[in-house]
Write a structure and sequence with these properties.
Layout: H1 4-14, H2 22-32, E1 38-41, E2 47-51, E3 57-63, E4 68-74, E5 80-85, E6 97-100, E7 105-110, H3 113-118, E8 129-132, H4 138-142, E9 150-153, E10 158-160, E11 164-167, H5 170-185, E12 192-198, H6 206-215, E13 219-227, E14 247-251, H7 259-272, E15 277-280, H8 287-293, E16 299-308, E17 315-318, H9 319-334
Parallel strand pairs: 3-12, 3-13, 13-16, 14-15
Antiparallel strand pairs: 1-2, 2-12, 4-5, 4-9, 6-7, 6-9, 7-8, 10-11, 11-17, 14-16, 16-17
Helix pairs in contact: 1-2, 1-5, 5-9, 6-8, 7-9
The structure holds zinc ion.
Zinc ion is lined by residues 63, 171-172, 201, 224-225.
Length: 337
């Protein structure tokens, strides 16, 4: 049986930023193959795993792209300027270790540190930062990285606390793991099931739009991370807690979930004895909005895994929430629409 921590380690090694997901897609395809009837990749790069059924189309979406960095310029001293892929908090990036796809390591450092210290944190942007890859000249750096090269957080998944893991890219690889775990558990379903590992969620829910247009599901359920109300950085009034079960989303900034999808998820959870939390977040969005509003639209819902430190190199999620999330999704799949 899949182990959530081992799966996260495997997917983290294959992780790639938005637009370059095929490496991760190949790893997931090899893991998902035994649990579906056909697999295909859409022109935008979504990996679609289809388990055929006679009933209505039920689509699950977890995004396999991650946030990252792309080289834009190398200066005469060998320092590397970059642009971000996906949402980053620029001041929090200072002293973050990164790894380029070719293995080159670097650290994000501020330019003109003394000047920068005078600025309020909110005024710091990635233009104030560069990556130090240990080079001493343009020539030396250019032999190590090129314009357009990609980098990602250089941390690795670790077990932490009471049944939690600290990892880069729990958003959203932990949800990809949960979806794989659910696929492994599904026994019998009348629904026509599509498990989609979407691309480019972090840059505007793009893969979910094309997947929804291609599949035309009756109902779609996204799986993503949501903020945990016990995050030390959070001042949100939010009852969601790490380790207290997956959440069923009611609303976020991008979507008001379909009451029909919420009802389906709650009934399935209750029948399977899965404890869930009700989620309303006032910031952020997920593939759910794209599923609901693309083409003719679909009844759209979302299950989230609570996470701390989201979009940092050290996101924290509970392995129990992942396991219970997989049970909830399997129950949703097995409950006839
Ligand atoms: Zn996400």
């Amino acid at each position: 049986m899949f182990n959530p921590f081992e799966l996260q380690k495997e997917l983290t090694q294959a992780a790639m930023p938005s637009g370059y997901e095929s490496r991760c897609g190949s790893t997931i395809a090899a893991l998902a193959g035994p649990f579906c009837d056909e697999l295909f990749v859409t022109p935008t790069g979504n990996l679609v795993c289809h388990k055929k059924g006679k009933g209505k189309k039920l689509m699950f979406c977890a995004h396999m792209d991650v946030i990252g960095f792309m080289v834009t310029y190398i200066n005469e001293k060998g320092f590397v300027s970059f642009t971000t892929i996906g949402g980053h908090n620029a001041p929090a990036l200072i002293n973050t270790k990164v790894r380029f796809v070719n293995g080159t390591m670097g650290i994000i450092r501020p330019r003109r540190q003394a000047e920068l210290m005078e600025k309020p944190a909110s005024a710091v942007t990635v233009k104030d930062l560069y990556i130090d890859i240990g080079a001493c000249s343009f020539e030396e750096a250019s032999a190590m990285v090129k314009i357009g090269d990609l980098a990602m957080f250089a941390t690795s998944p670790e077990l932490i606390g009471d049944g939690c893991m600290m990892t880069p890219y729990a958003d959203d690889l932990a949800s990809c793991c949960v979806l794989l775990m659910a696929m492994e558990q599904i026994k019998k379903s009348d629904n026509d099931l599509y498990f989609v590992f979407t691309v480019q969620e972090e840059v505007g829910l793009k893969g979910a739009m094309t997947a929804t247009a291609a599949i035309e599901p009756y109902m779609g359920i996204a799986i993503d991370l949501c903020y945990s109300g016990d995050d030390i950085c959070s001042d949100m009034e939010m009852p969601v807690r790490l380790g207290q079960g997956p959440t069923i989303k009611i609303k976020d900034q991008s979507v008001i979930c379909s009451p029909i999808a919420i009802d389906h998820m709650k009934k399935a959870a209750e029948a399977a004895g899965v404890k869930y939390q009700n989620e309303i977040i006032t910031a952020g969005g997920t593939d759910t909005a794209a599923i609901m509003h693309t083409g003719k639209g679909a009844f759209a819902g979302c299950m989230s895994i609570p996470g701390r430190n989201i979009h940092s190199p050290c996101e924290i999620v509970s392995l129990r929430d992942m396991e219970e999330g997989a049970r909830l999704l399997a129950a949703c799949a097995e409950t006839t629409l």
